[in-house]
Amino acid sequence: RLVEPGGIYTVPRTQAVGSITLQDDVTVDYADFRALSSSRISVNGHTLVIDTDFTQSSTSTSQGLYMVNANDDVTIMGTATFGGYFPALNAGILRLQGDLEATSTSAYRPGNVTTRFEGTRPQTVTFNGASSSNNRFTDVQIANLAGVSFVSQSTTDDFYTNDLTLLDGTSLQAPDLWVGERLTLEGNATLRGPEGARLPRLDLADVLDMNGTSRVYAETVEMRSDLEMEPGAELDASLVNLHSRLVEPGGIYTVPRTQAV
């Protein structure tokens, strides 16, 4: 089990080495918390708060952080580092207050888990291999008003997610981005490329939904479905390729060339 020391816990590293199933909500504050390849931490429909950095290295989906219940709710306050093989993140929500790192090419591939970035300082996502077949997301929510940046450490920098939502006041900087279902920007949210430049390529399989005064700043947009814009929203792109339908922008459409492809 995960222990919750009530006294002075002067331990530089605490490791999970066996199978642990939560029976209650738990908050742990270990200086350096690790889940070894022999371990499994089953959240079991509870809330788990890890108030420090968390590192895991798995060799199968049955190891490490194990989320298969829709009520599973995990918060990692420090840096979350995933190595080895991706764990069973198949249900619930993973809330990240610090950075997210995937150190091998298949270390982070959640199933139906929502990954929510809700820190109070800028957060960075670093993937060793970002693509639909390697490290990727399923459902991402950007809730950090200080901003989130995606970074790839390999030649593949095509960040993939099924759904992506940027809440009001947030921003996301990313290299190539592929959204398999819906991309939603609320309020004055902003999507752009690294270091504030244009997002090199935005590939949208489904609807781009832009609310309020939100803005997308990109080089090329692959539009494979519809565009829904409120009057104050702006799509600023060098090129938009239309794959399946002619869109009727309801907001500010700052695009010098639009092509039917």
Quick gist of this model?
Helices cover 0% and strands 44% of the residues. The protein has strands at residues 14-16, 19-21, 26-28, 33-35, 40-42, 47-50, 54-58, 64-66, 73-76, 80-84, 93-96, 100-102, 114-117, 123-127, 139-142, 148-152, 159-161, 163-166, 171-173, 177-179, 183-185, 190-192, 199-204, 208-210, 215-223, 227-229, 234-242, 252-254, 258-260.
Strand content: 35-45%
Average pLDDT for all residues: 94
Assembly status = single chain
- Give the H and E element order: EEEEEEEEEEEEEEEEEEEEEEEEEEEEE
- Share of residues in helices: under 10%
Tally of individual helices: 0
Main sheet properties: 16 strands, parallel
Shape: elongated
Q: What is the number of strand segments?
A: 29
Q: Helices and strands: which structural class? A: mainly beta
Q: How far do the termini sit from each other?
A: 57 Å
Work out the radius of gyration.
19 Å
Uncertain segments are none
